[in-house]
Design brief:
The chain has a nine-stranded mixed β-sheet. Strands 2-3 form a two-stranded antiparallel ribbon. It starts with 11 loop residues before the first strand and ends with a strand. The protein has helices spanning 44-58, 61-64, 66-84, 88-103, 168-180, 198-220, 244-250, 293-305, 323-344, 369-375; strands at residues 12-18, 28-30, 41-43, 146-152, 185-190, 227-231, 253-259, 272-278, 309-316, 352-356, 377-384. Helix 1 (44-58) packs antiparallel against helix 3, helix 1 packs parallel to helix 4 and helix 3 packs antiparallel against helix 4. The chain is of the alpha/beta class. It is found in: Cell outer membrane. This is OmpA family protein. Residues 143-261, 268-386 form the OmpA-like domain.
């Protein structure tokens, strides 16, 4: 599978595994696969943002106010990227923001009064800012490691950072896992509601994350060098802060555990698992080098072990070369991984799909070699089918 245009390509295989079933279908709807998220169900907020943008497009708002429309579209795409990257609730919250942007497009504006007989003054085009890059989430795996992502159902009292005794079992999810695998490290993320100033919320969320760190050190003997705390304040709200129930949900803790383990050693974690496998392609080629077969075999072995899983293989490139060419090459590389998993690992084709995105979903700027290398990647999104 060769093409003539030259383009450097050193992608990495990032495997974001969404593990564990859901106990109910509240806030979920049948997945139309418009956002290339695997699984039969998806959070309704995600597809509501698709519907809002489609309604805006049909109303002609993509041409009436193209800059604002592109911003809403970018917000929707960012929400999907976050949703894929082990941040389900944050992705859903961002999708709600994208829906609000789409619904608010092209508001009527009062015309400025012109003196009688005065000629209309041309409006200078606004300078276009440099397009934003989607922040790389903490769940983005590094080479040859996995990330085990856990949302801890710890609820904090207003203004407090102490962990109530009834939530000791939640801390145990992390403590037991890290005790079993002593090479692991973890980032504990703290979040707050929107009551109070941004700075006070950030400090409070930091103290809450540190409380979990101390509980892990004191209760499970986890070395301080293996733990870090990060407070995000009211960022990434997963519920409406207008209600007491919503604010309580926003006062929460996430744990992102980084581990260099053989995936075959792990029992299914309660939520999600993100693995990274290094796979390099030759320039202009979608052929998988045999030296990387073993890396992809790990994905196949995992999917065989858990036969309810499905996967979408995504191809991504940097922006060097013509966009149509990049799109085709990324699609071909994704299809190569799908074909390998089908033929070599025996994974049913109905459980796999390939999608090439070219350079449309970058995670770094393309103006440095390091940024371009980060953008040249293959993502494999593994999801468990929801059981009724």
């Amino acid at each position: 599978m060769r093409v003539t245009k030259k383009m450097g390509a050193v992608p990495y295989l990032l495997v974001a595994g969404f593990l564990g079933g859901l106990t109910g279908c509240a806030n979920y709807e049948v997945n139309t696969k418009r956002g290339d998220i695997p699984g039969y169900y998806i959070r309704s907020e995600m597809q509501e943002s698709d519907r809002a943008l489609e309604a805006a497009r049909q109303a002609g708002k993509d041409t009436a106010c193209p800059v604002e429309y592109k911003e809403a579209e970018a917000a929707r795409d960012h929400a999907y990227d976050v949703f894929r990257a082990c941040h389900t609730e944050e992705g859903a919250a961002l999708a709600k923001q994208a829906t609000a942007k789409a619904n608010a497009l092209c508001p009527p504006q009062a015309a400025a009064a012109q003196p009688k007989g005065a000629a209309a003054q041309p409006v200078a085009a606004a300078a276009q800012p440099k397009a934003a890059v989607v922040p790389i989430p903490v769940t983005e795996p590094t080479r040859e490691t996995m990330k085990y992502c856990v949302s801890l159902a710890i609820e904090f009292d207003i203004g407090r950072d102490d962990i109530r005794p009834q939530y000791n079992d939640e801390v145990a999810k992390v403590g037991t896992f890290m005790s079993k695998y002593p090479s692991t490290t973890a980032v504990i993320e703290g979040y707050a509601d929107a009551v109070g100033s941004d700075e006070s919320n950030r400090q409070l969320s930091q103290r809450r994350a540190e409380s979990v760190v101390k509980a892990l050190e004191n209760g499970y003997g986890i070395a301080p060098s293996r733990l870090s705390a990060k407070g995000y304040g009211k960022e990434g709200a997963i519920a409406d802060n207008a209600s007491d129930a919503g604010r309580q949900k926003n006062r929460r803790i996430n744990a992102i555990i980084d581990c260099a383990l053989d995936v075959k050693e792990l029992a299914p974690p309660p939520e999600r698992l993100c693995m990274t496998l290094k796979v390099e392609f030759a320039t202009d080629s979608a052929e998988i080098d045999p030296r990387y077969f073993k890396e992809i075999d790990n994905v196949g072995a995992y999917m065989k072990k858990y036969p309810t899983t499905t996967a979408v293989i995504e191809g991504h490139t940097d922006d060097r070369g013509e966009s149509g060419y990049n799109l085709r090459l990324s699609q071909q590389r994704a299809e190569s991984v799908v074909q390998y998993l089908t033929k070599t690992s025996g994974i049913e084709s109905s459980r796999l799909s390939a999608k090439g995105f070219g350079s449309t979903r970058r995670i770094a700027y393309n103006d440095t070699p390091e940024g371009r290398q980060a953008n040249r990647r293959i993502n494999a999104i593994i999801d468990c089918v929801i059981k009724q």
